Amino acid sequence: MVGRLITIEGLDGSGKSTLVAGLVAELERRELPVTALREPGGVELAERLRDLVKDPSLEVSARAEALIYAAARAQLVGELVLPLLEAGRFVVLDRYIDSSLAYQGAGRELGVEAVAQINQFATGGLAADRTLYLRVDAATRAERIGERGEAADRLELAGDEFFKLAGDAYDELAAAEPERICVLDGAAAPEVVLAAAIDAISELLP
Question: Does the predicted model carry a pTM greater than 0.85?
Fold first, then answer.
């Protein structure tokens, strides 16, 4: 069996972590080989870069930020994602290239195409087989983030305009690639979101 890369996208507070956990549990129930990973992170170098880029005490320029995310992604793909796919596993990845296109390309106003080129190089052109985009309104996002009770990281402190630009970019990406990106209602109950996600990836399942 050929491995499949399923990526989960959306703004902070859209329910990505909950969906990842649900998908993994469902694939395991079906006795399919699956590994869940997050970005940035998943391997030692990427986890260290994650700590740097999310640290609110650091000043990181927009271009440096884009390159740090791309570097973490390059390491994760080369060290772990490609070997897992080659071994025939499903990889459920919490964030991938679309996050950089939305956050750095649009939110930081570096340009979606410029950031896409950086990540094309970083990943060697590895694309997701299916992307599940959790779309959620600002009020729901704010409520969920508040319930976490955690200190905001550097990206979460970027401001409303940043997230408006990033959210609009996600919508544009989904409209441009409907065959890859499936839009899900992130405000729906977790079991409803999971059912829709399973339906969206059904053609990838044996």
Answer: yes
